[in-house]
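tokens incoming
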């Protein structure tokens, strides 16, 4: 009996099958993780593009107004959860920015990533906060 047990553990003829099964399991797990996380990278890129577009509109118009809101909240762009402006206004009421005055727009968006979706009960999620900022300089002179 002892000889059979030792021979069974020393026999390497089926070792390749175990390696292939483990390799396939790792490939499947890595693919599942990539499919789960990839949308967050796409949303981050879209948020960066939206911030750049909003900054360019402010550069051209010289104010933070309706044109910027159209860019930020249009159906073609991602709608951010929070918009913050770092700027010194020329006229605070009209939100105008004087020529050559720098500004920065900061957009943030919370993105939930589902880790496990059980049949019964709520899904287990991680919430990532994506942040995008774009800087610019006003190109409009206000009298």
């Amino acid at each position: 009996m002892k000889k059979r047990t030792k021979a069974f553990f020393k026999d390497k003829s089926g070792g390749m099958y175990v390696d292939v099964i483990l390799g396939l399991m790792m490939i499947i797990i890595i693919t599942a993780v990539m499919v789960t996380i990839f949308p967050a990278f796409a949303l981050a890129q879209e948020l960066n593009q939206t911030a750049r577009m909003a900054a360019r509109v402010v550069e051209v118009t010289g104010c933070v107004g309706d044109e910027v809101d159209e860019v930020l909240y249009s159906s073609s762009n991602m709608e951010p959860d929070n918009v913050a402006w770092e700027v010194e206004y020329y006229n605070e009421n009209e939100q105008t920015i004087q020529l050559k005055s720098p500004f920065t727009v900061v957009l943030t968006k919370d993105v939930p990533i589902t880790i496990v979706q059980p049949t019964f009960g709520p899904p287990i999620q991680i919430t990532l906060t994506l942040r995008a900022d774009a800087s610019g300089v006003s190109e409009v002179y206000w009298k």
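note: The first strand starts at residue 82 and ends at 87.
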